[in-house]
């Protein structure tokens, strides 16, 4: 199969925007992606894949065409992909498949979610929809509760404490403070993070990402098209895997098997290993998830994630920066937009457009997007400076 | 002749001291009641009845699946109309082809159910439970308790029902509940109500045509802690005999379950002969004399161990709390829920026909070997070990659990490795299956990984007016 390249990527700001709609947020993201692509116009898009969980209902059916027609991609085949928080990570993968297969020369992948325009009670109905419903949710377990259960098992099994979760928050907020599009773009002290109110023991408020409004889009193109564009980042590796939806159905509560499998596929396709990666955007919906990601993606051995945080290895100026964008914690988590948004950050880093948070000598980046508590995961390995 | 082979009783662990009511209202409360039992937000007459029924079966050494007649008596069923006895049977594991009868309409119902069950063929289980309520300022609310009891009758049970007597006389307004209301009330004319009670109770005992002066205990329906004693003279028994069969001072008014909790308590203390009288407002009474040819096994829990403040009691009872918020998002239909009733009521797991691994719920591909050959059903004992745990803080619950959380506050949720059919295999064994479960325990602390727990029957949530029953777990060390 032929290679696929990211030739443009853009996102709206993430946050709470009562004056925006899912369509206007998507339009903002699409416009930025087109601008960054230079040389590609709407008329070149052959295919569109849009990720959204559908929080709030709004346009559950035909939600792909609803946004692509809105931005003038008239007639372009467009479909929605739903894989909870991994929806648009999977949309990117689908667009890559379309290009690699030869069915499309230019494919648009994107995602959106609007999560802040409903009461707390209604939001709770929607936040729980990606847990295993019949047993997990109906014991009263929330989404944060499931990750808290994983955290309890992790602390029980390894040498870790809630302070390590707080360190994730401090690091990601420090990065997000440098990202003008971040939802919670402010710094927080370790003390702030340690003393936040408990959400689900051992996780506190600073160990949980916000719910956000936002959209992100990525333009994927063939080599022929990419060679005519201003920028191009090669999709070196793609991996994706599923896992049982309920935590209780799994063999391990301290690792996410779908992440491990997705990563190993992506590394194999890229012919690269964790040591070849310069930075990563990982799925830190809860702080424990970032620790699990370090281990599932092979950045360290099992049980060693706390050490990476203690030593500052994954800080923006560390040896191996993780979540330079601020991650889900600080940049925000508009569910359906998150996976594509990670690719937007990787594209900016690999093309030298990450401004204050630019990582020097960033040639290979990895994005890691997880659905629910691990029922789906998708990993991309992206390589800059190739064309 | 059939006789009672085992007795079970269950009183919730939460209680409100009478002084807390007095302090809140600046008035007396229920006469002769020291504390009232309070059902938790996820308890009702079905769950309490299940707890009592399981204890009675265990005391009698009778398997639920051999029971051929089940009677359920309550004045406070979960719904005004619906066969609650059917779900009680399911929760207990009584077969679908057993005869089932539900009794209500007045607090005499339990005694009527027992009188009728005398003639039933085969192992018979009679479950009585009540959870009355009253308007907050009323004597009925001050005295309202909660509890359940159950008796198992078999061909050779040692405690026989020797005589039955009945009496009734119209006395409207003495104890009643309006249609659609949850609050029991009375007209409030003291002497009129006392007379109705003593004359009907006395009349039923007269109708026994038996000398009851020598019984070890007299167990009477007890709306408060004084009325049974006022009937002593009419019955021809001593107040000591009444005391031996009365539990109301520690449980509060447990409605139709009252005399049965008195019976259980008396047998537990070694009584060999008991007069049991059920009284219902309106008014009617049924009296039974029971005598034991040998010890009657009793498995009972009478005492609460978690004291509530008055405000906490109002919350637990749902007096001052709201309802489930309007929603959207995830939804489990009643038919979908109903498909998992064997799992939720009786922990029916499955063994993979290919590799023998346990599965719960037993459906889909085997997690161990991937086989789709299906499962052979097997029941789990309900014990298990905590594998992962957290607490869902106040205000954080999913919408289905908002009302429960308003009433009971934070609740722990755990992933529990349920023991296989042979029980705890210890560290060496891996014949277990993991399930998520809410931890029903006060105070709500995060359980430690490795803690042992046991399943208990509870209301899980209510939606579309339909209560969904299932199991939660309690720490084994806190199991009463």
From TrEMBL, chain A:
4Fe-4S as UniProt keyword: no
SUPFAM superfamilies: Thiolase-like (SSF53901)
Limits of the Thiolase N-terminal domain: 9-224
Sequence ranges assigned to domain Thiolase C-terminal in this UniProt record: 239-383
Cross-referenced PANTHER family: ACETYL-COA C-ACETYLTRANSFERASE, NON-SPECIFIC LIPID-TRANSFER PROTEIN-LIKE 2
Name by which UniProt lists this protein: Acetyl-CoA C-acetyltransferase
Entry's Gene Ontology BP terms: isoprenoid biosynthetic process
Superkingdom of the source species: Archaea
Annotated GO MF terms: acyltransferase activity, transferring groups other than amino-acyl groups
Gene3D superfamilies reported for this sequence: 3.40.47.10
Species this chain originates from: Haloferax elongans ATCC BAA-1513
Keywords: Isoprene biosynthesis, Transferase
From TrEMBL, chain B:
Domain of life per record: Archaea
Keywords attached to this entry: Isoprene biosynthesis
Pfam family, one: zf-ChsH2
Keyword Coiled coil: no
GO MF annotations in UniProt: acyltransferase activity
InterPro entries: ChsH2_Znr (IPR022002), NA-bd_OB-fold (IPR012340), Thioester_dehydratase-like (IPR052513), Thiolase-like (IPR016039)
Xref: PANTHER family: BLR3430 PROTEIN (PTHR34075)
Name of the featured protein: Hydroxymethylglutaryl-CoA synthase
Organism the protein comes from: Haloferax elongans ATCC BAA-1513
């Amino acid at each position: 199969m032929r290679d696929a390249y990211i030739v443009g990527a853009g996102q709206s700001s993430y946050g709470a925007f009562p004056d925006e709609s899912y369509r206007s947020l998507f339009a903002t993201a699409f416009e930025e992606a087109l601008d960054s692509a230079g040389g590609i116009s709407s008329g070149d898009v052959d295919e569109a894949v849009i990720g959204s969980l559908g929080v709030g209902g709004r346009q559950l059916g035909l939600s792909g065409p609803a946004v692509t027609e809105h931005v003038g991609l008239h007639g372009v085949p467009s479909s929605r992909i739903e894989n909870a928080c991994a929806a648009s990570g999977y949309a990117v993968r689908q667009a890559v498949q379309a290009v690699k297969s030869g069915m499309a020369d230019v494919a648009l992948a994107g995602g959106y979610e609007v999560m802040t325009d409903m009461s707390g009670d209604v939001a709770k109905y929607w936040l729980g929809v990606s847990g295993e419903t019949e047993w997990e949710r109906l014991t009263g377990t929330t989404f944060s509760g499931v990750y808290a259960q994983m955290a309890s098992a992790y602390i029980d099994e390894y040498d870790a404490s809630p302070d390590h979760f707080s360190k994730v928050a401090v690091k990601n907020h420090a990065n997000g403070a440098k990202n003008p599009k971040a939802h919670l773009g402010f710094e927080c002290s370790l003390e702030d993070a340690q003393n936040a109110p408990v959400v689900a023991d051992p996780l506190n408020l600073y160990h949980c990402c916000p719910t956000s409004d936002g959209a992100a889009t990525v333009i994927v193109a063939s080599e022929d098209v990419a060679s005519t564009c201003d920028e191009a980042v090669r999709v070196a590796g793609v991996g994706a895997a599923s896992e049982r939806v309920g935590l209780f159905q799994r063999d391990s509560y301290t690792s996410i098997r779908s992440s491990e499998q997705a990563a190993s596929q992506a590394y194999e396709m890229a012919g690269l290993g964790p040591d070849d990666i310069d930075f990563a955007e990982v799925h830190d919906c809860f702080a424990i998830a970032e620790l699990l990601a370090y281990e599932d993606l092979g950045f360290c051995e099992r049980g060693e994630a706390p050490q990476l945080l203690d030593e500052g290895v994954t800080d923006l100026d560390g040896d191996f920066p993780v979540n330079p964008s601020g991650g889900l914690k600080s940049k925000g988590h508009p569910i359906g937009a998150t996976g594509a948004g990670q690719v937007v950050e990787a594209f900016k880093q690999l093309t030298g457009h990450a401004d204050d948070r630019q990582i020097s000598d960033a040639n290979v980046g990895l994005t890691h997007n997880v659905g629910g508590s691990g029922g789906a995961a998708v990993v991309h390995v992206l390589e800059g400076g190739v064309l | 002749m059939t006789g009672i082979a085992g007795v079970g009783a269950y009183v919730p662990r939460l209680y409100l001291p009478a002084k807390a009511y007095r302090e809140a209202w600046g008035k007396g409360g229920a006469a002769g009641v020291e504390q009232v039992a309070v059902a938790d937000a996820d308890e009702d007459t079905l769950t309490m009845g299940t707890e009592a029924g399981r204890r009675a079966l265990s005391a009698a050494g009778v398997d639920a699946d051999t029971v051929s007649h089940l009677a359920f008596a309550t004045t406070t069923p979960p719904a005004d109309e619906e066969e609650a006895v059917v779900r009680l049977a399911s929760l207990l594991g009584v077969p679908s082809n057993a005869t089932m009868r539900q009794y209500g309409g007045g607090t005499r119902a339990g005694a009527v159910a027992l009188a009728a069950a005398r003639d039933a063929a085969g192992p018979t289980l009679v479950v009585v439970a009540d959870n009355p309520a009253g308007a907050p300022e009323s004597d009925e609310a001050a005295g309202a308790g909660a509890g359940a009891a159950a008796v198992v009758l078999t061909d050779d049970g040692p405690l026989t029902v020797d005589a039955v007597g009945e009496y009734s006389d119209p006395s409207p307004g003495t104890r009643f509940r309006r249609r659609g209301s949850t609050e029991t009330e009375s007209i409030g004319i003291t002497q009129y109500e006392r007379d109705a009670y003593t004359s009907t109770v006395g009349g039923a005992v007269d109708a026994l045509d038996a000398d009851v002066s020598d019984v070890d205990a007299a167990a009477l329906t007890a709306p408060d802690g004084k009325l049974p004693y006022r009937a002593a003279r009419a019955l021809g028994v001593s107040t000591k005999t009444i005391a031996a069969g009365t539990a109301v001072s520690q449980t509060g008014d447990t409605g139709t379950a009252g005399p049965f909790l008195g019976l259980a308590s008396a047998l537990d203390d070694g009584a060999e002969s008991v007069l049991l009288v059920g009284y219902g407002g309106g008014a009617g009474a049924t009296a039974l004399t029971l005598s034991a040819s040998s010890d009657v096994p009793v498995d009972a829990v009478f005492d609460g161990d978690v004291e509530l403040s008055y405000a906490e009691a109002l919350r637990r009872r749902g007096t001052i709390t709201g309802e489930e918020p309007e929603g959207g998002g995830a939804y489990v239909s009643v038919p979908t829920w109903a498909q998992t009733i064997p799992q939720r009521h009786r922990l029916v797991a499955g063994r993979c026909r290919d590799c023998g691994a346990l599965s719960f719920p037993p459906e889909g591909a085997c997690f161990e070997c991937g086989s789709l050959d299906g499962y052979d059903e097997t029941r789990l004992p309900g014990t298990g070990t905590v594998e992962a745990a957290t607490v869902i803080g106040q205000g954080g619950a999913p919408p289905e659990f908002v009302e429960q959380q308003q009433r009971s506050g934070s609740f722990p949720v755990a992933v529990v490795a349920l023991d296989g059919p042979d029980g705890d295999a210890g560290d060496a064994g891996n014949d277990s299956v993991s399930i998520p479960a809410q931890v029903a325990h006060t105070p709500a602390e995060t359980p430690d990984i490795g803690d042992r727990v046991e399943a208990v029957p509870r209301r899980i949530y209510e939606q579309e007016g339909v209560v969904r029953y299932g199991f939660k777990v309690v720490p084994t060390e806190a199991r009463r």
